[in-house]
Specification:
The chain is mainly α. The chain has two domains: about 1-55, Homeodomain-like (Arc Repressor Mutant, subunit A, Orthogonal Bundle), CATH 1.10.10; about 60-185, no CATH class. About 70% of the residues lie in helices and about 0% in strands. The chain has ten helices and no strands. It has helices at about 5-20, 25-30, 35-40, 45-55, 60-70, 75-100, 105-115, 120-135, 145-165, 175-185. Helix 8 crosses helix 9 (about 145-165). The chain is elongated, with a radius of gyration of 18 Å. About 30% of the residues are buried.
Length: about 190
C-alpha cells in the first residue's frame, strides 16, 4: 500500500471517530504516519480526501446498482434486491458517522455542497436505473414509480444507519433481506 492509500485509510478512521467537521488534515496525516505536506500532494483539500474515503473505503453502492442495472438477468430479482439493500445498508452505516458532522454548520454544509461534483442523490439515480432494468425484464410492474420505490428502499436503509449510529450498535442483521423480500412482494 502506498502513501496515498494509507492516507485515505487513515482519513476513514479519523473521520469515523471525529466526523468530517472535526477531522483535521493534520490529524489525518499524523494517523497515517506522514506529513501534512504529503497529504496535500495527493489531495487538494479535505473535501477531496472525504470523496476518496467515500469511493475507496466504503461499500460502493453506485457500482453495485450500476452493475445490477447492466445485467439484472444474471440473478433472480430477489437475489439482486438483497445484494442491493445489503450494500446500501453497509454504505449508509459506514458513511453516516463520517458525514453527519457536515450538518453541524451551515457554512460547512454550503462549502461542502459547493465542492461536490456529484451529490448524495447519485445513488438514487443508479438504483432508479437498476429498477428500470427490472421493469423492462418484466420482473417489476410496468406502472411502478421507480423513483419513489428507490427513495423508499434507500430511505429505509438510511434510517437504519441513523438508528444504528445513534444507538451505537450494528445494523439489524436481517434487515436488508427483510427489506428486499418485502419490496419484492409489492414491486
Amino acid at each position: 500500500m502506498g502513501s496515498r492509500e494509507e492516507i485515505v485509510a487513515a482519513a476513514a478512521t479519523v473521520m469515523r471517530e471525529r466526523g468530517y467537521a472535526h477531522a483535521t488534515t493534520k490529524a489525518i496525516a499524523q494517523a497515517a504516519g506522514y506529513s501534512e505536506a504529503l497529504l496535500y500532494k495527493h489531495f487538494r483539500d479535505k473535501t477531496a480526501l472525504f470523496l476518496a474515503v467515500l469511493k475507496e473505503e466504503l461499500p460502493d453502492l453506485a457500482a453495485t446498482a450500476a452493475r445490477l442495472a447492466e445485467h439484472p438477468e444474471k440473478a433472480e430479482f430477489s437475489d439482486n434486491l438483497a445484494e442491493l439493500t445489503t450494500t446500501a445498508l453497509a454504505f449508509y452505516c459506514a458513511s453516516f458517522p463520517i458525514s453527519v458532522s457536515i450538518f453541524s454548520s451551515r457554512a460547512l454544509l454550503r462549502t461542502h455542497r459547493d465542492t461536490l461534483e456529484n451529490g448524495p442523490d447519485q445513488p438514487i439515480q443508479y438504483v432508479v436505473g437498476y429498477l428500470d432494468a427490472e421493469v423492462k425484464l418484466g420482473r417489476l410492474r410496468s406502472d411502478l414509480d421507480v423513483e419513489a420505490a428507490t427513495r423508499l428502499l434507500l430511505g429505509a436503509c438510511f434510517q437504519e444507519a441513523f438508528l444504528a449510529s445513534f444507538e451505537e450498535r450494528p445494523p439489524r442483521p436481517d434487515l436488508a433481506h427483510r427489506l428486499a423480500a418485502t419490496f419484492a412482494k409489492i414491486g
